[in-house]
């Protein structure tokens, strides 16, 4: 029976191919010269080079964080190349000029890069190794004043906006990997929703690491002005390599008064093989600032890939009555390790946060939830509800929950619920006795377990997420 | 009911089974024909529930000897889900909770799987809803049950009703009810029994595993079997149950031991 379960959760990785494309790759190693090279390649203004150098100098004084419940050999930061880009033939004017090999790659991955073929209502920014390749629906979004595209372009075209918000939520010296990212980030998405605008379509970024021994350090910045709202999706894949690749991204969200940002991730980086060889180290800092009153930031993540995941999408609830949400499904298998969760920092009055975390461990993997709920003295009437459920598949995996709760205001209300369950022989037998085979049974159990989170995802992503877990969709009507 | 010349549905011969190396069933024989209701009684630890689970194919048990023929096919060669699709139904003593999986979704998937196996029409959610609501009336169940997760937060009695609802939906040819009466109050016992009686006909058969005679006032058996130490040691009519109620099991076990001694 457990052999059947193993088989079901061990679907082969479908995105593990390498595209043969001419790339420009910087020499390995990290120094101020590397940073100057990246900055020069991207024709950046001086203030940004200064931002990078400052971060780098600070990074040199920092230590690799050792507190996460993950194990890996020491990373040699000099053995990584910090810049890789598909070689541009010339400045591209339209999608038709993009290298067809590149387009085929994204078609194979199911990413809609052609607007005519795109899923209705989703604009996509596509990032290949270090560089943004294309953004769809840009013109249409510009009509309502929305800026959506690569952060490199934004640095050129909207330097004041980038300068104002870059590093305002995740300071350059925030932590080891955030500092590294601030020093060497190559590209990422920038999204600005002006006052009062409800973004008419889902915005999406698709990340692809293609080159071996490169790191991917993307930087995403989303700003929603007063009364604005946006729903943003992020997807990621990488080819199979025997070596580990480092992915250290920083995502910053800023929500002003009455603004609403919904950020969804389906992370499917290559996880390494069944013996734990290869795979991505996914060390990511994601943080949202609910700066204005009544603002809301909602994180939804489905983490299925990566050899190691280390990420805590967080909300700083500064504005009164602001709301932070975190919905997460983290699946680990084989030798994967995940230490993931969230931080909810309550500063403003009547701020509310909700945490729903579902961890599924299979194989010999290790899956930890780590979350902080912090209520500061000024946060009168703050409320938090946390629910952390773990599911074990088989007998060799492990699940841990590390909740940190710090309350410094007597009027606060904080609730934490946790459960651990197991897909056991008895449950499988019950399904079998009703004629339902093992594959369908696991699919139903897992989907049922994750339902609270999947409901938060936009439709297409919910479908992809369900597929990603390697299981079939539940019946059309619940 | 005993039907003249009724075909044999289930034939168990010399069945032996063990769990974790301990033998529980030690050469069990039983023949069930279509239309019949059999009660299996016996003291705790005699192997009644093990027998029910082994028939259904629970993977924790290892069959070490004997044979089980069901509708002329070797049941022991079939995977648990294939046995279910072939018409073997087990109402669980302790129904399993499945959080997050809707009762109606679960029922419909089970129904359609069995229908497909029988080459009969599968139903879409709306059609199925009509069917299941009809069956629920029979068991005096509130439609709210459909919206809830399978058995999650159900009381003991609700879980047992839910098992019989599944039986009503799947219409098995052999229903094995494992202590369905335990944990039921007198009203629930009546409703569940009525449900079972309603579902029995000349083409199917029921095997009741029970501790108490009480259930047999409502579902009247054609045969009563007494199990002890992994075997059936006495078979009689419905009056045997009354005698057991009065005298307990010791006298039968003593008689059986005597008979075995006489043979030896």
Strand share of the residues of chain A?
25-35%
Strand order of the largest sheet of chain B: 6-9-10-3-11-12
Q: Using CB atoms under 8 Å apart, which protein chain pair has the greatest interface?
A: A-B, 28 and 33 residues
Determine the mean pLDDT of chain B. 93
Assembly state of the chains shown? heterodimer
> Radius of gyration of chain A, rounded?
22 Å
How many DSSP helices of chain A?
11
Distance between the termini of chain A: 27 Å
How many distinct helices of chain B?
Answer: 9
Structural class based on helices, strands and sheet pairing of chain B: alpha/beta
Low-confidence stretches of chain A: 1-5, 89-93, 115-120, 471-478
Shape of chain B from CA axes?
globular
CATH-assigned fold name of the domain at 8-98 and 173-263 in chain B: Rossmann fold
CATH A-level architecture of the domain at 8-98 and 173-263 in chain B: 3-Layer(aba) Sandwich
Mean pLDDT rating of chain A = 82
* Total number of beta strands of chain B: 12
Structural class of chain A comes to: alpha/beta
Strand content of chain B: 25-35%
Termini distance of chain B? 37 Å
Helix-strand sequence of chain B = EEEHEEHEEHHHEHEHEEEHH
Give the biggest sheet of chain A.
Answer: 11 strands, mixed
Summarize this entry quickly.
The complex is a heterodimer of chains A (about 475) and B (about 260). Helix content of chain A is about 20%, strand content about 35%.
What are the defining features of this structure?
heterodimer; A: 478 residues; alpha/beta; eleven-stranded mixed sheet; ten-stranded mixed sheet; 11 helices; 23 strands; globular; disordered N terminus; disordered C terminus; B: 264 residues; Rossmann fold; six-stranded mixed sheet; four-stranded antiparallel sheet; 9 helices; 39% helix
């Amino acid at each position: 029976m457990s052999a059947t379960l193993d088989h079901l959760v061990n679907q082969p990785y479908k995105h593990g191919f390498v595209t043969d494309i001419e790339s420009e790759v910087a020499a390995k190693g990290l120094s101020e010269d590397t940073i100057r090279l990246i900055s020069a390649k991207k024709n950046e203004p001086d203030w940004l080079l200064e931002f990078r150098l400052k971060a780098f100098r600070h990074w040199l004084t920092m230590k690799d964080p050792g507190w996460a419940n993950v194990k890996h050999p020491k990373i040699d930061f000099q053995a990584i190349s910090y810049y890789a880009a598909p070689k541009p033939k010339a400045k591209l004017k339209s999608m038709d000029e993009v290298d067809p090999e590149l387009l085929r790659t994204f078609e194979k991955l199911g990413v809609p890069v052609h607007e005519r073929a795109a899923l209705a209502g989703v604009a996509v920014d596509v990032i290949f190794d270090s560089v943004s390749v294309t953004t769809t629906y840009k013109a249409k979004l510009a009509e309502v004043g929305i800026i959506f595209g690569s952060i490199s372009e934004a640095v050129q075209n909207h330097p004041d906006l980038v300068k104002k918000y870059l590093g305002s939520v995740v300071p350059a010296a925030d932590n080891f990997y955030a500092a590294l990212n601030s020093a060497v980030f190559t590209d990422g998405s920038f999204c600005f929703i002006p006052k009062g605008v409800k973004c008419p379509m889902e915005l999406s970024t698709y990340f692809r690491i293609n080159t071996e021994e490169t790191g991917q350090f993307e930087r995403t910045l989303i700003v929603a002005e007063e009364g604005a709202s946006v729903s943003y999706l992020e997807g990621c894949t990488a080819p199979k390599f025997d070596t580990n690749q480092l992915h250290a991204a920083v995502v910053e969200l800023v929500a002003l008064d009455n603004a609403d940002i919904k950020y969804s991730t389906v992370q499917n980086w290559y996880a390494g093989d069944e013996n734990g060889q290869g795979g991505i180290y996914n060390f990511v800092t994601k943080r949202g600032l609910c700066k204005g009153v009544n603002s809301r930031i909602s994180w939804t993540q489905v983490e299925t890939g990566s050899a190691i995941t280390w990420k805590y999408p967080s909300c700083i609830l500064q504005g009164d009555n602001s709301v932070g949400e975190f919905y997460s499904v983290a699946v680990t298998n084989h030798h994967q390790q995940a230490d993931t969760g969230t931080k909810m920092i309550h500063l403003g009055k009547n701020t509310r946060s909700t945490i729903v975390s579902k961890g599924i461990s299979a194989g010999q993997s290790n899956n930890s939830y780590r979350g902080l709920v912090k209520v500061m003295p000024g946060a009168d009437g703050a409320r938090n509800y946390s629910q952390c459920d773990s599911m074990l598949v088989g007998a060799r995996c492990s699940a841990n929950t590390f909740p940190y709760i710090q309350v410094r205001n007597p009027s606060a209300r904080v609730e934490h619920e946790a459960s651990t369950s197991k897909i056991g022989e008895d449950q499988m037998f019950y399904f079998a006795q009703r004629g339902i085979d093992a594959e369908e049974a696991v699919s139903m159990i897992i989907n049922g377990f994750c339902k609270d989170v999947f409901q938060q995802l936009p439709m297409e992503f919910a479908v992809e997420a369900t597929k990603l877990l390697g299981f079939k969709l539940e019946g059309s009507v619940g | 009911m005993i039907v003249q010349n009724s075909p044999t549905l289930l034939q168990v011969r010399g069945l032996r089974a063990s769990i974790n190396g301990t033998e529980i069933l030690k050469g069990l024989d039983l023949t069930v024909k279509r239309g019949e209701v059999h009660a299996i009684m016996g003291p705790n630890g005699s192997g009644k529930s093990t027998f029910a689970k082994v028939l259904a194919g629970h993977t924790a048990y290892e069959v070490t000897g004997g044979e089980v023929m069901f509708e002329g096919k070797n049941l022991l060669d079939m995977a648990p889900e294939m046995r279910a699709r072939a018409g073997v139904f087990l109402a669980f003593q302790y129904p399993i909770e499945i959080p997050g999986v809707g009762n109606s979704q679960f029922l419909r998937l089970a129904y359609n799987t069995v229908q497909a196996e029988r080459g009969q029409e599968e139903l879409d959610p709306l059609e199925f809803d009509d069917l299941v609501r009809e069956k629920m009336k029979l068991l005096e169940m509130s439609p709210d049950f459909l919206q809830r997760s399978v058995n999650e937060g159900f009381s003991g009695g609700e879980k047992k009703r839910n098992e019989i609802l599944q039986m009503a939906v799947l219409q098995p040819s052999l229903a094995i009810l494992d202590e369905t009466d335990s944990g039921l109050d007198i009203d629930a016992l009546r409703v569940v029994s009525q449900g079972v009686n309603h579902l029995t006909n000349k083409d199917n058969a029921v095997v009741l595993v029970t501790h108490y005679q009480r259930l047999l006032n409502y579902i009247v058996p054609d045969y009563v079997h007494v199990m002890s130490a992994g075997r059936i040691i006495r078979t009689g009519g419905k009056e045997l149950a009354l005698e057991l109620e009065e005298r307990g099991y010791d006298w039968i076990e003593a008689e059986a031991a005597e008979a075995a001694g006489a043979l030896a």
